[in-house]
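S.,

Sequence below, as promised.
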Amino acid sequence: MTLPAFDDLQVGDTLPPLALPAINRTTLALFAGASNDHNPMHIDIDYARKGGMPDVFAHGMLSMAYLGRLLTQWVDQRRIRQFNARFTGITHLGDEITCTGKVVQKFEADGERRVKLEIQTANQAGDTRILGDATVAL
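The prediction came back faster than expected:
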């Protein structure tokens, strides 16, 4: 992995997008096991329907994990200084999620050159599901 050069980055530059396959039941089951989050809204269609949903839907933390992958495919995880997310919509079965990010600020702090990023996930229709930000030391 080649670390992006602080001097080569400009505000408005984008990270390489991360496009993921459609969310399916297998993905949800595997994530439930890996995260120990067995909330039935994500894995039990009968329970989800009783809760007023048409079907199960993705864990919010699954999409946040995808954003983490976006960041760690750009820089080593040891370079991440801060990572926040706000859930803005539900990721449904069949949604094809794309994670994107862009540089919104360059600055120095604690003797490090850093960039602040706006990051997000969106489905195939362009509907935002998570808005977030991250700070990375370069």
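The radius of gyration is 17 Å.

Coffee later?
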